[in-house]
Design goal:
Layout: H1 2-15, H2 22-49, H3 53-85
């Protein structure tokens, strides 16, 4: 039992790696959920035969510890998935600095967000 708990803790450490790719996270998560199933089955076997209330309480605490680890892994999996499957946020210029809006064409200078001038004689904007 201790060996399986140690393996689950090791998988949690792997999941916390900031360089972990989505595909790798899926593998870690699958291993963790498979291991959780084995641990829970083993805990049920032990609990059925256990008469000592303190030992039953210790087994319950162990079960809660497993659930906490699994929650952390699942949360990390979701974060990796969101990071991987969402495109980069647009730059300030692409997000709508409004300098290229036809209604704003009267402006000759623009704010610092795109660092260029909109003079009609010398168009220096590459987005025009």
């Amino acid at each position: 039992m201790e060996k399986m708990i140690h393996q689950l803790e090791h998988l949690l450490q792997e999941a916390q790696n900031p360089k972990l790719l989505w595909e790798e996270m899926q593998i870690v998560s699958k291993k963790a959920f498979d291991l959780q199933d084995k641990i829970m089955a083993e805990l049920e076997k032990i609990e059925k035969n256990e008469q000592d209330i303190e030992r039953v309480q210790a087994l319950f605490d162990l079960r809660e510890n497993v659930w906490d680890i699994m929650t952390q892994i699942a949360t990390r999996e979701l974060a990796v998935k969101e990071k991987t499957h969402h495109p980069k946020s647009p730059s300030r210029h692409e997000a709508g600095c409004m300098c290229h809006d036809p209604e704003n064409s009267k402006k000759t200078e623009h704010s610092a967000c795109c660092h260029h001038c909109h003079e009609k004689e010398k168009p220096s904007c590459q987005k025009k």
